[in-house]
Every structure is written in C-alpha cells, then in structure tokens.
Amino acid sequence: MATRVTINDVARVAEVSVSTVSKVVNGRYGVAPATIARVHQVINELGYETSLVASSMRNSRTNIIGILVAEFEPFALELLNGISATLRGTKYDLMAYAGNLTPEGHIGWERRSLSRLGGTLIDGAIIVTPTVEIPHSPVPVVAIDPQAGTDMPIIVDVDNSGGAQKATEHLLGLGHQRIGHIRGREDLKSAHLREAGYRQALENAGIPHDEQLIEQGDYQHDAAVEAARRLLDLPQPPSAIFAANDISALAALGVAAERGLAVPEDLSIIGFDDIPAAAQSTPALSTVRQPLHEMGSHAVRLLLSLLDGEEATAPQQLPAVLVPRDTTAPPRAN
Amino acid sequence: MATRVTINDVARVAEVSVSTVSKVVNGRYGVAPATIARVHQVINELGYETSLVASSMRNSRTNIIGILVAEFEPFALELLNGISATLRGTKYDLMAYAGNLTPEGHIGWERRSLSRLGGTLIDGAIIVTPTVEIPHSPVPVVAIDPQAGTDMPIIVDVDNSGGAQKATEHLLGLGHQRIGHIRGREDLKSAHLREAGYRQALENAGIPHDEQLIEQGDYQHDAAVEAARRLLDLPQPPSAIFAANDISALAALGVAAERGLAVPEDLSIIGFDDIPAAAQSTPALSTVRQPLHEMGSHAVRLLLSLLDGEEATAPQQLPAVLVPRDTTAPPRAN
DNA sequence: ATGAAAGCGCTAACAT
DNA sequence: ATGTTAGCGCTTTCAT
User: Where does the HTH lacI-type domain start and stop, copy by copy (chains A, B) (predicted)?
Assistant: First the structure.
C-alpha cells in the first residue's frame, strides 16, 4: 500500500519539469526524443498512471460514461450488461455509481449523484429509474424507466401500455371474457400506462367496461393479496387476472391456492416484469418481460449521439415481450 | 445542460467567502447561525452539491469503495450484487469501474485502473479476476478470483479443488469407475486446482491413476472438442467425464451427440462454473457453482476490516456448490 | 465570525 | 525543447 506515484515524482526522478512529463504522457509535440524515452522509462519504473481525478479537473472530457443507479439490484445489473456490451469498442470507459447506499438522503439521489460526478468526472450519464426530474444537468443525460412524470427530456423505457395490452390480449385469445386487473402504484407512470393497456385491449375486444374488476394492488404483495381477494369475492369473479407486476401476480397466485382454486384451470394469472421469481413459482408465472439488455443498449446509443452534439431524440419505447408460462390457459368450459 | 454550480457561485450569491461556504457544507464550527441559514438557502436555490472530484483531491477519505472489473459480464455482475447488498447500510458508496472497454491496453488493466482511481477517488478497491499481480497499491485491495499466481495478499475465491472433488465424487457416487478429465488452461491457477481435486477424489476412492484419462481442453470449446474425442476414442473409454469448466463440458456434450452416445445413459458429463448456458442445454448440464453472491459479500467484509486498520487475513475459500442436473446418472450396467 | 491563501495533481498558455 | 505559471473546485490552516 505504497503512497501514490504522482507526476511530480516522475518529474523529479527524470529530472525534467512536470509540464514536460505531462506533454510526454499526452503525446504533445515539442519534446526531444531522448527526453521522451527517459520519461517513459521512469514512468515504467515507477508505475505511474495519471490520476483520473486530477486530470478531470482540468479537462472537460474524460471519456467516461457514468451510470447512476440507486442500487445494484437485478434490474440495474441487467441494464448494465447491455450498456457495457454496447460501449465495448468505443473510446468510452464505464463507471457505475450507486449513490444511495448510505442510509440518509434516498430521495433525489440521482440529482445528488449527477452533481457530484457530472461536469468533471463523467462526460455523460445514464440514470436508471430516476425518481425526480433533473432540471439542469451539467452533462447530457439519458433516463431509463423514469418512475415519475415524463419531464425528463431523453427517455428509454419499455412500452408499458403495449405490454399490458399484449398480456390482456393473451388472456382474451385463450377465451377469457371476464378479466380482472390488479393495479400498480398510483404515483407511478408505469402503473397508469399498464392499466391503460389493459383497458384498451378490452375495448378493442368489445368487452364492456366493469369497474369492479379493477382493484388497487400498489405493486406490493400485501395490498395485492387484498386486491385479489376482493376480486375473487365478487359475485361474478373473473376467470383471469392481469396483475400490474409480478409481485402482485405472485400474491394472486397465493390467494388462489388459499381458496383452493387450481391455476390455470380455475383461474389464469399473468404478471408484468419477469422477475427471477416468476420463473421459479409453481406453476411458473406467465408474464411480460422488459427487454433490459436492449434498453441499456438503446440508452447508450442515444447518449453517444447526444455527446456527438446531436439533437435530443423523442422518447424511445421498446416493445415488451410476452412470456407465456404455466399460469395461463383457456377458461374451464361452463 | 446548464453549467455546473460550484462553491464559488454559492459564495458569490450568498455574499460570503468560499471558505465560509465550505464550513457550512461540512458542518464546521465558527459560523454564525444567520450565515449558515443564508448559505443553506442559496445552496438549495442553486442546487449545489460538492464535487466529488474536487473534494477528493483534498481529502484522503471519500467513503467510496471501488470495484474494478475488466468488463461488466455476468460473473462480475453477480458479484456486484453481493457486494452492493453487503455495503448497504454502511457509510460507503459504491463505484464500479470497467477500465478495459477501450480497445488498447487490455492486459494489466487492473493496475491501470487502480492507479487512476486509487489514492484519491476511492478509499479501497475490490478487483475482480485480476490478471497480474498488484505490487503496490495506493489503497487497500481485495482480489476476487485472481487468475494468475497467488501473490495477491488478500484473496477471495471459490474452493476450486474442493469443487472439483465434489464433482468427481458425485460421479463416483453414481457408480462410475472410469472417469475422464478435460483439463483447463495451463497458465491459470484454477485449472491446476480443479485437476488436483479430481485426482484427489480418485485417490480417495482407491482408483488407480490412468494418465490417458486426462486431456487438455484449455477451457475452450474447440480444444475441448478435440479432448473429448480423444477420450472417447480410447480403447477403454470413460463412462463419465469431469470437464474443468462448462464450456468444455458443453463441448463434450456435442461430441457425445456426434458419436450417437446417449447422455447420461452412455456417458455422464459434469462441468464447473454453472454459466447460464448450462441450465439451457439439453439435457441440462450437471455442474458445480461458484457462490458469487457470497464471494462478493466476503470481499466487502474483508475490505472493510482492512479499512478499519485491521491486519491482512488469510485467503478466503468459499465452498463450491454441486448442481446435479440431467447429464449425470449411473453407468449403464455391463 | 469571517476571509485570504496555499495546495491537492494535473494541463495548457505562455515565456524563455 | 523546456520550464514557469495559472487555475480547475475544494478544504484547511492561519490571519484578521
């Protein structure tokens, strides 16, 4: 754990000025070949590398893209995978920063992280699932799957309403006519869009609207359990349920079990997200998947074009992918 | 994309000196309550945040842990998951840096990244799968799964020999007596350890050593295909093969198919690593898994104790987990 | 209680 | 070809 080798150490040992070392390191003109050789030799001997931090204070460009996440959970990690793959071969390095691990300050973490890194350390940022608007950023920013309003300029997310529509049409296609919906969190854009997709599918199928079939699940297990119970307690219970996320769908699966309902024979259930647990449940949960890899890839391409000085593009919606598994089947003939 | 708000902006608007602002931000004593209030107000108005970069040049501590990876691939991402979870609730933020994405300089990326970030930006580092020794680091370092020698002081990795032994004993337990081995890359420590575990298991079972049953597969598909062919061409071919990694095992699976051998009836195959493709193959590959989540968690705990000034600990070996799937079964009765 | 000044490691404009 | 200097944003003595 030796102390850091700085440009000063190199200059001293090579018996030149620091600016000469800097010129050599950055390949600037106006240094004698002999000097270049000697400096390089000292650099190797000492194992010197320029400090990213110090040089980023002088240079505007660092060739580093920052990925700002609240936390490294599976959703963010899968995005990171696509981002990393897309960045390979470009001149950019990748720095992922989780600035929300400390107990304090959880809301608005993205604004904080962006201010702390932007303008100096990173040339541009991709923010994963931001919770608040970013009014003015020091660097170009692309948001992935923003939770709140749509005021962020550049956005990549899944086609929530289209995905919900696919899920509902899947049930419709199996022959279901009475389809319930467990709604997501009121304050999140995605919840509204998913509900809209559900309504759209029913409308397209010419099925009259029944407000009783929509219950609030808040994207959370407990609330979804209650919602599912109310749905199944209906005088005319639904033969299928589209839940706004997999957590809720899994909750509904539990309620079906507690009622002695066979899934999918007595009740079909489909979720949204395709979280890992979805594939593990018994029976395996039918759902709709966000193409995370491609979303990350898309975000990178958008950011790179922004960094090349191109104009802001319209929001990018990537299609959701239907993943039919074992919780959806035709309704029991009656 | 407004320009960055600096401490100077705050000072100017609040009509105080920058040092006063700094004191307020860092909660130092000796500032009038009225001044504190005014400065805070301006900070909020302007949306100021201290620059990580600038402050890290003055402070020795940043409360940021750096994870240095060559690339964000599944192995590193899974580790990141464990690392992030373990760091939650501590005072540390997490910064993951992939410094190998640029085409040039791929070997020794870890030394480069460490020099560039260490000493200023990060308080300590966890390096994933380093390829070279780190002679002197500016900050405490823990290595996960180093590829080369064992000269790195603090290491976390899977128990390679133990895992190989488990795999071999699994085959032994099924009744196999003649077990081949496709060896990994000569220059990697893990390959030697896995071979050693294989030999140990056979020795423990009192099975005489047959050098013909070990072939070089280099951890690579093509070489492993050749190795598997040679094994199966033997006058007395093995009834089971332990491959040093899943790539090689999958290659062997292909060779079995090309020979018309049924797996696992005619030939049992087991790999090592549990890469995603392992679960996808037909039949699904039996293998041995590295507990990546726990390895990440362990590395964090080691690093934190190092940062608390504790002494270097001995290398940590985490047990590998046997994952029996469908490519291993008792040998055909003969 | 406040501010002026030095310095962290580095780069670039400007001498020499 | 080389060195001197200023300054990036910040924290920390050290005056005042």
Answer: 5-59
